[in-house]
Design the sequence.
């Protein structure tokens, strides 16, 4: 690991209180950040401080406390938008990435997708970027089609071109980084091709924004979604970045308070962006917490976060390859993947692998990772998965490898 | 010895009894555990109200496969009514190991499928 990653790791681990925990006398090794990241003290304190000092409902209160709460929440929005090079008026807070995708599927999809149209997704999507499009196609009579994934875990731009050339592709939805394979998809190339073919793009960046520098404008997506809790922030807050043009002409997703301009007996007019899409009381503390998470990541520097993830992933790919009977999925080049490694071991089901790792206080995930179509493509019912963030170090990977070796012995392998 | 992965559990996992398919069969059901995607199907031959033979198939962890293998031998010879009444405790007794809440559905998947095949009720055993 290079000096940059070393320094970041040494400095940050003390900020994450949960890493002080032990199970069975063994220090916790948390390798499930692709499911949810741990939270630094700075985020936990920001949420606590908001409730202790500044709690009030936002936007309409005329008293100083409400103005303060509003400033904290809207200030967080500004910083979150700036973090990915986007404008705050077109940065909408949702419950999570899933809700953000559903917002697009309902508010844009139901209005624009017609019978005979094609909605194009990929075989490497999380269920959150599959099921909303299945429902959209069922409701509209459109056809759902899938871009295939190669044995190396990558998409083919040639196949994309062929499908787009067939016409009728109205929307292309895909992950920036796969939550199973770690594959970093060529977002800008895909969005440029889709735009040229007249299709709108939706990018699920849940696994990208937490671990690499992102400039949404350069990526060229019409809609770009992610979630706070994987980016060191609280649960209950997701983000939708959209183009002003599309968001402006879309109907609201949810109706209620805060999203209206004027309510008559039979109809209403809508609030301005972004609040038109934020019905009801917002996740205020969660927004404040996400702002603190962004500040924390920015202080480390996303280039440094990415370098750390890349180096640790390369180390994990090397060390895991030493385990007998192991099969690694996804690109073997750490340059082309994020900080996640899925694997299988002959003769051991992933659930049993995770159970045996748990005995060594090593937290990994086992199962289909909400990506059942991808599991079918890979020909496995499930995989085990280790994923990393800034608080992980080489020693954590070593502990995982030791647990796998010990686990194979329990199974008599 | 490992408290969960005992020798007989691993033996049933690696060498499952009554594994495969049966044709013709009288009852069948294929189901899965939505938490992990594990799949399990059964083919059952019924003679005079009793389970005359059965085979299970699918893929799963050591606990789900051992539970299916171990209970399959007990189920053969039972009446369909008896099978339908078997509860979660019966399955866990047959397994003879401590099952944590997170692995409970692994252990109960076979009985869920058997209950569904015999009664049409695919709910999890209580």
Sequence:
């Amino acid at each position: 690991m290079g000096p940059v990653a070393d320094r970041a790791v040494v400095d940050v681990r003390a900020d994450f209180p949960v890493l002080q925990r032990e199970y069975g006398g063994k220090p916790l090794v948390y390798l499930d950040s692709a499911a949810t990241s741990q939270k630094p003290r700075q985020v936990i304190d920001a949420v606590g401080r908001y409730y202790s000092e500044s709690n009030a409902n936002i936007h309409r209160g005329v008293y100083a406390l409400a103005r303060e709460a509003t400033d904290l929440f809207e200030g967080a929005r500004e910083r979150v938008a700036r973090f990915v090079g986007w404008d705050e008026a077109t940065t909408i807070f949702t419950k999570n990435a899933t809700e953000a995708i559903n917002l697009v599927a309902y508010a844009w999809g139901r209005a624009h997708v017609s019978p005979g149209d094609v909605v194009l997704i990929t075989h490497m999507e999380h269920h959150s970027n599959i099921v909303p499009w299945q429902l959209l196609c069922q409701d509209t009579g459109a056809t759902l089609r899938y871009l295939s994934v190669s044995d190396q875990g990558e998409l083919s731009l040639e196949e994309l071109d062929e499908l787009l050339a067939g016409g009728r592709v109205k929307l292309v939805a895909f992950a920036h980084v796969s939550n199973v394979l770690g594959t970093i998809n060529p977002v800008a190339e895909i969005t440029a091709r889709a735009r040229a073919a007249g299709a709108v793009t939706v990018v699920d960046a849940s696994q990208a924004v937490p671990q690499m520098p992102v400039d949404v404008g350069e990526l060229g997506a019409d809609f770009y979604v992610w979630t706070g809790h994987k980016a060191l922030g609280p649960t209950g807050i997701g983000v939708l970045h959209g183009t002003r043009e599309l968001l402006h002409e879309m109907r609201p997703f949810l109706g209620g308070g805060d999203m209206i301009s004027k309510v008559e007996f039979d109809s209403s007019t809508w609030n301005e962006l972004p609040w038109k899409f934020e019905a009801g009381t917002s996740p205020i503390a969660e927004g404040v917490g996400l702002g603190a998470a962004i500040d924390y990541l920015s202080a480390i520097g996303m280039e440094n976060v990415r370098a750390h993830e890349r180096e640790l992933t390369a180390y994990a790919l090397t060390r895991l390859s030493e385990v007998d009977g192991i099969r690694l999925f996804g690109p073997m080049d750490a340059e082309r993947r994020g900080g996640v490694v899925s694997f299988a071991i002959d003769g051991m089901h992933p659930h049993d692998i995770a159970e045996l790792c748990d005995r060594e206080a090593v937290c990994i995930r086992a199962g289909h990772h909400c990506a059942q179509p991808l599991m079918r493509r890979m020909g496995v019912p499930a995989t085990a998965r280790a994923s990393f963030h800034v608080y992980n170090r080489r020693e954590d990977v070593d502990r995982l490898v030791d647990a796998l070796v010990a686990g194979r012995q329990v199974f008599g392998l | 010895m490992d408290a969960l992965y005992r020798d007989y559990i691993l033996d049933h996992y690696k060498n499952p009894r009554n594994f495969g398919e049966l044709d013709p069969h009288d009852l069948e059901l294929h189901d899965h555990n939505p938490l992990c995607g594990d799949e399990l199907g059964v083919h059952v031959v019924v003679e005079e109200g009793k389970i005359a033979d059965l085979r299970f198939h699918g893929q799963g962890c050591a606990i789900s496969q051992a539970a299916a293998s171990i209970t399959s031998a007990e189920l053969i010879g039972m009446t369909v009514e008896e099978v339908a009444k078997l509860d979660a405790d019966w399955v866990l007794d047959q397994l003879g190991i401590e099952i944590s809440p997170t692995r409970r559905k692994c252990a109960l998947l076979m009985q869920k499928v058997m209950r569904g095949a015999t009664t049409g009720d695919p709910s999890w055993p209580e």
